[in-house]
Write a structure and sequence with these properties.
heterodimer; A: alpha/beta; Pyruvate-ferredoxin Oxidoreductase, domain 3; Rossmann fold; 3 domains; five-stranded mixed sheet; 20% strand; B: alpha/beta; nine-stranded mixed sheet; 11 helices; binds thiamine diphosphate
Chain lengths: 640, 317
Amino acid sequence: MATKTRASSEKKKGPGKGSKKKGPEIIRVPETTVEIVSDSGEGAQKCGQIFGAVCAKMGNGAWTVEIIPAEIQPPARSKAGGSGNRVRFGTEEITNWGDATNLVVAFNEQVLLGRIELGALAEDAIVLLDNKWATHADEDIQKEWQGGLKELAKHDYRIVEVPMEEECLKIVEDPRRGKNMFALGLLAWICDRDVDLIRAQIAHQFRRKGEEIYQRNVELMEAGYGWAEKNLDFRIEVPTIPSDVPKVVMNGNEAIGMGAIAAGMELCSMYPITPATSASHYLSEVYDKFGGVVHQAEDEIAAVGVAIGASYAGKVAYTITSGPGLSLKQEFLGLAVMLEVPLVVVDVQRGGPSTGLPTKVEQSDLLTACFGQHGDAPHVVLAPATMEECFHSMITARRIAEAFRTVVIVLTDANLATGVQPYPRPQLDARWQQAPVSLPPVDENVPPYDWDPQTGLSPQRYPGQPGGMYTATGLAHNAWSKVAYDPDSHQLGSQMRSRKIAVLQQTLKPPQVYGSDSGELLVVGWGSTKGAIEEAVDRAQAEGLSVSSCHLTFIQPLQPGLKEIFSRFDRVMTVEINYSDEPDDPYITDENRRRAQLAWVLRASTLVDVDCWSRVPGQPLRPGNILKAIRQRLEMGAKV
Amino acid sequence: MTHLGCSLLSCGVVDDRHFEMEDYQGAIARWCPGCGDHSILTAMQRLLEEEQLKPEQTVFVSGIGCSSRFPHYMKTYGFHGLHGRAIPAATGIKLERPDLDVFVTMGDGDCCSIGAGHWIHAIRYNVDMVVLLLDNNMYGLTKGQTSPTTPATFPSNTQPYGSYLEALNPLTATLGVTNASFVAQTAEWIPAHLFETLKAAYHHKGFAFVRILQRCPVYTEKIYEDAVRQPDAIEMLIHDDGIHIPDLDEIYKNQIIHDPGNLDEARRLAEPFDRFRLGIFYRNEKRPRYEDLRRLPVRTAEEKVELLNQEFDRYAV
Ligand SMILES: Cc1ncc(C[n+]2csc(CCOP(=O)(O)OP(=O)(O)O)c2C)c(N)n1
């Protein structure tokens, strides 16, 4: 989007108090990306969250991404320590974080340089930079500042030095607590945001902190607004289209939490792990009033064990985790499959293996989610692509878990978890809630696994049902749940558990193709990359390239019709945030190439020679990079 | 959390069933002849009969091991799960369904080794359930490997020249954890004591932990040999608030009067691992129970939808 901020500009008198004679330059754009970065602990994330929410509330499309250092307290003024938030907003819907930032507020030059090294800024970005470092008591810091400015001068940025510290000191003693609100005010004036909405959002963010804190934050925000109005000569205008579709705005983890509540699930049994924790924080705050419990277990194994025990005895329970936790839970997931106890597992993926990139996005748990259990443990894996889908996926997951008496893993990721996006307000349905467990007597001649031989389905039986006593066992068992090591029993049990998944698959719809139905290249994605992939496809089509895409919600079982869809394209490739060898890497041959995870699965199930392009940057994929990959793969010609 | 839609009770049907011991008998037990688990099973079935527990309202939960086959031999609901993980499953069952009576059976490998973390934390949660450690001092099912409770120098297939370490003492471990509320020890070869101990554990409201000394005729017959042959090797903790079986006074003459309300004394008495002290070491019903602390209002579907709509209002654009 490098050119977008300058797409159309004209001089006009700003809507402010009109204190200047000549109005500021108005940069009118269909969308823009704003970023605020500070040292960790200076509140840039809060500022960005409020700004993003206000954009959404004003009717803009928006997508926010957190900029997170991995440590809680990285050293101050370090390139790697930048913390903050990036907000892309536009007139139309925004589905991903885009390519580059057009406007950045930085609290020091080092965190800014860190962002530049990551390629975060557009070449013509506007930079607002706190200049307190120019006169800092420490000479080393003054030198760093001078060096930083030189570095910045090598680019085409428009740099505005802002006396943020000085201005904040007029209001607070410790500007580390408050500069973020000043910055919010700057952005509010520049982007002409609704100040009343900002005040309301500040009140929401600081609702537990009391009136005085709220007042001071508002004062700081207004000071930033006033300073910008007096001193800046440009404004950015992103028109809003009023819509009468009621919307809500939240991050993916909140959407997961609300989805779980809407689905009638009442026990979230978890162990803290980034980036999954904020879902349980949200639930812990509100669950009591719904009669729900967040049980923080002693470890991930216990967490899933408690959930399975609860599901065995009554309502479907769930657990929320991330990769390392999923690994620990695997034995229990196999047990749930074996006992046919319904269970919902949310895996908010982060970079791995091992502790990997704890705060950053990756899509590398797909295979372990599908195949991580020992033995044959057929179950369901689905992957929401947006905040809205995060919400609805929980309702779907619970229904499938219950109807098919199996485990449903919902794969989200750090991008969805921490990103914020507005979406149409869901119409809630009381039927999504679970009915009270009913415990009618059971005919003693009916086995506890009364498998329908065609479908493998059988009704769940609960403790408390007279006449229905049985022992659920993880040992191989027959329909009576009696331990049975004979060949026929294990064959039958395995078949019944597997068949259910085929039955589910038959109820699914084929995925929709985005773009034309046939062509040279089909890009296949899953999870949070949907928006970026579709934007790349749009741009490729605008270049006249013959590209379409298709996004899978169900990973296991796969949606029907894939083979047929793939056959209409010369070449199929997945785009994923996990590792794969590039075809021209040293030592790599078609035989030994390790492919992206969805590609493995698609190749195995369709026998199509599915290619892949994947990266592990610890960041969402940029549409511009996907576009490059599309061009490059098209040059390689047909492959199907 | 779960509120029951319809059960025999809530539907107003008069329940005048009477249960005999056979009503609690599940599959034929497949333990070795002479295995101590047989007598524990019998004592348990007797307890259920005496208490007239409804089979459908009772759940036996276990891990993996010889002792963990227990649920299969009961005609109640059962959950035979993973090695070491009986307690989390039982906790989930009880959180969801406080109306059920939950019994957990574990081996010493199950409880004190692979499941040790769950055991320690479950003591703190103090969820109302009976938890039996069937302690044969050895891994039975996997055929004779050293367990945490194997006495030092006792040989096994993995430590054939004798166990290197001192044994872990499950009683002091349990008594040492914050919020312990019931700790007892009994021996499967003294059926009357076993029965009374199980009964006291059942009547305790909270996490009732009972270590049962259990003979394994294949791997650890020798360990309890003296105690079985010579009653003098056993010391009975007796008290009006504890267990006192006058019929046994003649046989077990070593008696210690111990008030189960005295935690310090309980810890002192539990300390020597080589002494077979049987009885209730500690009991305190005033300890908070996790399921009570987490008890919440039951909401109807409509109420929840209404509340969730209010939540959405907070996030409305
Ligand atoms: C995760 C896992 N590790 C190991 C085993 C093998 N295993 C089954 S039972 C058992 C130990 C049994 O000993 P104990 O718990 O003392 O019970 P016992 O058989 O003596 O009653 C082991 C190691 C297993 N089933 N699962």
